[in-house]
TrEMBL record:
<protein>
    <recommendedName>
        <fullName>Ureidoglycolate lyase</fullName>
        <ecNumber>4.3.2.3</ecNumber>
    </recommendedName>
</protein>
<dbReference type="InterPro" id="IPR024060">
    <property type="entry name" value="Ureidoglycolate_lyase_dom_sf"/>
</dbReference>
<dbReference type="InterPro" id="IPR011051">
    <property type="entry name" value="RmlC_Cupin_sf"/>
</dbReference>
<dbReference type="GO" id="GO:0006145">
    <property type="term" value="P:purine nucleobase catabolic process"/>
</dbReference>
<comment type="pathway">
    <text>Nitrogen metabolism; (S)-allantoin degradation.</text>
</comment>
<dbReference type="GO" id="GO:0004848">
    <property type="term" value="F:ureidoglycolate hydrolase activity"/>
</dbReference>
<dbReference type="InterPro" id="IPR007247">
    <property type="entry name" value="Ureidogly_lyase"/>
</dbReference>
<dbReference type="GO" id="GO:0000256">
    <property type="term" value="P:allantoin catabolic process"/>
</dbReference>
<comment type="subunit">
    <text>Homodimer.</text>
</comment>
<comment type="function">
    <text>Catalyzes the catabolism of the allantoin degradation intermediate (S)-ureidoglycolate, generating urea and glyoxylate. Involved in the utilization of allantoin as nitrogen source.</text>
</comment>
<comment type="similarity">
    <text>Belongs to the ureidoglycolate lyase family.</text>
</comment>
<dbReference type="GO" id="GO:0050385">
    <property type="term" value="F:ureidoglycolate lyase activity"/>
</dbReference>
<keyword id="KW-0659">Purine metabolism</keyword>
<dbReference type="InterPro" id="IPR047233">
    <property type="entry name" value="UAH_cupin"/>
</dbReference>
<dbReference type="InterPro" id="IPR023525">
    <property type="entry name" value="Ureidogly_lyase_bac"/>
</dbReference>
<keyword id="KW-0456">Lyase</keyword>
<keyword id="KW-0378">Hydrolase</keyword>
């Protein structure tokens, strides 16, 4: 089995732009509401919910922690909806994504999401299932429900991508 090393980049809107939204206060449009008592950071992510009887779903995922070295052996995507992950306990997490290459994941990219960042994968964007770090962590998930099966998985046939180190940028 071939092992390809995968480096980890800091999560920024610009770097993540081909894959979805970075949910963070930094750089957001800020509106003062509620008679000035509340700041609204406006329109942070594009939520997509397509298909029959489609609706937006909110879940909480409690992810068990991963520690380096982390072997990425598969990727998945959701053809009918976006999927957002917002950390509820202020811990960083790993995000692994890829653009599509003729129906399979292209080259992988890994990002370290800070504790004050969430991500929203757009519909049909290849990503790895939740990769919590340090300890079991809860995430608010904004997902899609509907009649169609919304999960497509791809298991690498003859290689793995290994994340050897997760540096804190
Ligand atoms: N299967 C499921 O609901 N979770 C994955 O989609 C994931 O991205 O973690
Ligand atoms: Ni997913």
């Amino acid at each position: 089995m071939r092992v390809e090393l995968l480096g980890v980049e800091p999560l920024t809107k610009a770097a993540f732009a081909p894959f979805g939204d970075v949910i963070e206060v930094e750089g957001a449009e800020r509106r003062l509401i509620n008679n000035g008592s509340t700041e609204r950071f406006h329109d942070l992510a594009r939520v997509e919910a397509e298909g029959t009887e489609a609706r937006v779903l909110i879940n909480i995922f409690r992810g068990q922690p991963f520690a380096a070295p982390i072997d990425i052996t598969m990727m998945e995507r959701h053809p009918f909806g976006s999927q957002a992950f917002i950390p509820l306990q202020g811990r960083p997490f790993l995000v692994v994504v890829a653009q599509d290459a003729a129906g399979k994941p292209g080259p992988l990219r890994a990002f370290l999401a800070r504790s004050d960042q969430g991500v929203n994968y757009w519909r049909n964007v290849w990503h790895h299932p939740l990769l919590s770090l340090e300890q079991a962590s809860d995430f608010l998930i904004v997902d899609r429900a509907g009649m169609e099966d919304n999960l497509e998985e791809y298991f690498f046939p003859d290689f793995i991508c290994r994340i050897d180190t997760i540096t804190d940028f």
